[in-house]
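Researcher: I'd like a structural prediction for the single chain below. Treat it as a standalone chain; there are no partners to consider.
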Amino acid sequence: MNWESAVASLQNVFRLDLTAGGLTAIEQQGFAHYLPISTKRQIHLYGKDGLPKWLAAALPDIEFIRHPPLPNLEATGLANFEYEAQERTLSKLETSEKRKGVWPFAMSSPERAYLEVLQDVPETTSFEHAEQLLQGMTTLSPRVMETLLRKCTHVKVRRLFYWMADRQSYSWLKKLPQPETLDDLGLGRGNRVLARGGKLDKKYMITVPEDMWTPPASITDKSDS
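Model: Treating it as a single chain, here is the predicted structure.
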C-alpha cells in the first residue's frame, strides 16, 4: 500500500472527509521547488474527519498530517484523480469500459492547495516558503482563484494571498477582483500580527517579516507645478 491507495480507501471505502491538499497537492502537480526536510514523507490531508489509527501502522514511513478545511469551500477547487491499483496495459476496448483496479480520489487543485498552505503561515510554513511556491505557480487560473477567494471567508488567507500575489508580476493577477469587491467581508477589519517584530503593511493590514516588507510607492507632490 502507498499513500495514494490509502487516501483512495479513506474516501471511497470509509467515506471520510479527507482530501490530499496543501503542500502534497502542490508537489503532486509539479509546482513544488523544494519540500521541508523530514525523516518521513509528509502527506497533508484536509477535512472534517480525524485520521484513523490504522493509517500510521499501515504506512510507518509516511507521516500523515491532518488540517482543518478552509471555511465554506466545501468541494470547490477539488480535482478528481485516479490511482491505478494494478499496473497493466489497457487496450482501446478496455478504456471504454469500467476499468478494474482504478480508484478515484479527490485532491486540491493548485489554486485551492495554495490557499490551504497560506492557512498555516507562519505557524508551520514560513513566509519565504509560501512566496517561493507562488513564484513557481505562473499558470494559476484566475477564474478558479476568484471563485475560491469569494467563497473562502478566512480573513488571514485572503490578506496573505493578495499580499503575496501583489509581490509578483503575473498576468493572472490583473484578472482578479480587488479584495474589497469580493463581498461585504473583503479583507475584514483591524490589523493582524503575523510576524512578531515585523512591519505593518497598511494596504493589507498584516504585520510581515521586516526583510519581506515593501515600502509604499512614493508619490510625487505636484501641487506646486
